[in-house]
Amino acid sequence: MPEPLPKPVAFQFTEEMKGYISPGQHTCQQGYDEGKAGGLALMFHLTIRIDDLDTFIADPAHHAQAVGYLEGSYIGGRQPVLAGEFNLFADSGDADRKTMLYRLKFENSAGHALTLCGRKDIRDDFGFDTWSDTTTLYVNLYAGHVSAADEGAATLLASGILHIQVRDFLHQLTTFQADAPTLGERLHAVQRFGRLFMGRLWETHGLPRRHGREPRIRTIPLHSLEGVKDAEVSTHYASTGDGLGISLLRFQRAPCKDVVLLVPGLTASSDMFIMPEHRNLTQVLLDEGFTDVWTLDGRISKRQPYNHTRHRFTVDDVALYDNPAALGVVRRAVGPQARIHIISHCLGALSVAMSLFGKAIEGVRSVIVNGVSLTPKVGTFAQAKLAVGPFLAESVLGVDYLNPEWSQQAGISPGKLLAKGVSLMHRECDVPECHMTSFMWGYGYPVLFRHENLHEVTHRRTGDLFGGSGVHYYRHIRKMVSANNTAVKFDPKDVRYRQLPDNYLQDAADISTPMLLVAGQENALFLDSNVLCHERLEQLAPGRHQLEVIPGYGHADVIIGKNAAHDVFPRFLEFLRQHAH
Q1: 428: left (phi > 0), else alpha (psi -120 to 50), else beta?
Q2: How far is the C-alpha of 267 from the C-alpha of 448, rounded, in Å?
Q3: Of 403, 272, 266, nearest to 322 (Cα)?
Q4: Which side of the chain, N or C, has fewer Cβ within a 10 Å radius?
Q5: Which of 553, 322, 339 is nearest to 448 (CA)?
Q6: What pLDDT, in 10s, does the model give residues 242-281?
């Protein structure tokens, strides 16, 4: 008779975390700060249960059950966890980052279904951060019982941060228990769990590990139009007031009274709206009844040559010259009765907001701005780059512009040497163009997006989607950041821009066009710029503009993310339909 299989070894430990949350749409740090000021404490007491330690260790996601309770005034006191999940050191979108994930489904005192989702990011940043990584949990509270697949589209109710306090951590060390028949087996189970935990920590915080780089093979043709089906495509040209030629693409299925103009960010282009590797924004708009969609390629576009020079353009130029010229082309084509809506991204969004609030454009029915609008805000390291970067690039390195594709250049050049040096500092992926965009734009690993939100094809063609740029725009952004995070004119004495205001918020109360300010909650470039902008606009024009914070998203992935059609674009459509009639 065969011997019976050994009984699986169960394992468990207890964890208690405490912190603060605040209702509303904002970043987790802002939710923590406001919650702390308002006394909105939240805590949970969980027992993490592993039914089979062998299976748990072998599972790459290291999935376990979480049971216990949450407690806080916002949820109506102590509430039991109805269904809880925990993942220990699960893979993330970054090669050098692991995550600990919590998903706790419960009901508040009124019987409303809620879900608390939390994430610890385990990554070796500068300094000793092992303790902070493993004891800091960024949390979002959602309406309803929300699965991981539906989290991006869920209704965000509150955000904040929870921490493990030292005393609670010391107690946690005493709660490890294994269900095994002998003391030796129980001790061995604890040892195996500890080996897994410390081994994963070593993988992220130990000696540097380099990943291999795959050769770049272009799987999607450059500037492909294959991502938009069943539409007539035409190209239209415009001349700006300062003598540049710019262009627009029109994707039309049928005449429509509600026309949408899509404006990309600096060094991006129409390509970010028509990507064939997943359902893109243009395709979604066409499918949802907005059957006349335009995309702009102005002076900041990768499809134009103007960024590849040592220019002195500012965002004022885009606001005063490009956007009015583009709107003029659209208006002449669609007629005076059509309602024009704008969806814009990054510096394109900043320029559109400046055009609108600077009264350089009119006749726009609604505007959606992603990432930044009238209150640019960047982190401390990014501010340092803005301060010294332009001088170092132009006068020390001697380059006319920064180029994400320098590492692909033949031969040796200062730009290529810089790109190779930048890649040495980035272990989160093996795409050098991704490393350079992070170097060019702020501070982060990566900056422009969260890797887990991108299709792998998208990630591999970062250099096709984001091009080079002259550095003078940085000087204008720095001036705005220094002006209390306010969009201001670069040179008030320059008579060419006399029709623009020195401060673009000065006439905000007079601007009747409604804006939807969109903010990826994890935006590593412009942080919570649009949250700040919404707060200021609420003071100047209460109730006129809306804010939409997208949990789990960064900056460009709000537009180019593989699941943006499910998680993000329905929010765009809802706003457009509010103003479509």
Answers
A1: alpha
A2: 12
A3: 266
A4: N
A5: 553
A6: 999 999 999 999 999 999 999 999 999 999 999 999 999 9
